[in-house]
Amino acid sequence: MTKLLQAQSAQLAGDTESAVAAYNAMLVHHETHGLGLRGLHLEARRAGDHEAALEYAMRANARAPAAWAGQAVLDDRARRGDWAGALATVDTNAAAKLIDKPTANRWRAVIKTAMAEAAMERDPKHALALAQEACRLAPTLVPAAAICGRLMAQAGDYRRASRILEAAYAQTPHPDLAAAYIRLRHGDSTEDRLARARILARVAPDDPESLLTVGRAALEAHDGGAARAAIAPLLASDSPRGRPTRRVCLLMADIEEADGHEGAVREWLGRAARAPRDKAWVADGVISDRWAPVSPSGALDAFVWRTPDERIAAPAAPAAAERPTAPVVEQIAAPAPTPAPTPALRAVEPEPHAAPAQSPAVVSAARAGVIIDPASMAPDDPGPEERQADRRGFRLYAND
Asked: What is the pTM of this model?
């Protein structure tokens, strides 16, 4: 306990060398060996030495499995894209009871989905097997269901692909699932895709994603009336969803463009720039249109499909009763600046001819700092007392 307090005191004081020395001294004793490795791991991470941090975590995990060490090894494997090593680490942590079974199954599904996504082009059969295993472990994982549906459709198993996509869409209506469902068969016409979109919309009829899917499919089928009718609930002023989102506005712009209404297209594009955001993958404050197994900070399965938080442009002004009243002394000490005095206007009318330009002598005197009485000089323009009758050639109204 004394050595631990010495290390923590050095950390609080910002003395990194003393903290590292104290943690190294803790490695000598069996009782403090794990605490010393954890402290060295944290100090290495603060210094940006990820190799040393991983070494300390692996040493701690090999000696006596700990939750922090197993998580550190898993994060490093996932950050590097070593999916086989990450899967083995999840199995090791689950066997040591460092994580519960649902969490272990979820992470296995995420890792297998990443492996399937990487193998889709070069080995579709292996990718399909990985995606099926991921769907079995986590049926609500959207990327796994989308990959599994696409690969099954490529293999000609349309019925199973439809069931998997419908089951996942019922849990999480997502545009990737809708796109995979509508385009199961490459030879379908736009009318066939519209019919499939309406079938999928019955799975989640009240979700905005279903309305957008039907509206987009109707537009591709050149049925502008059906497209407008599909997204009409999203445009209603009394809609419980609030203002139309960005995707709704962009779809309306496409509909107006198909009908040849250029003015309406510009209006909807302008509204799209100010519209609320649609749902997206969010992790570590990053908004992404595509799912990723690892967040920018290196956390596994951190991306969540949700509506991003709206940014507040400026803090709201406090109410009049809540606004602090400035002291009277400050108001007196900092009075408003007094405007510069303006020359007095003459009562006589200005001369009809233009005033002569200033002579070079006057200009040189002004540059030399000589103060010249402005009243003794004619202004260059008539000034604010110019009468309306003298402004020939100008009309205030069209009927003048």
From this structure: 0.70
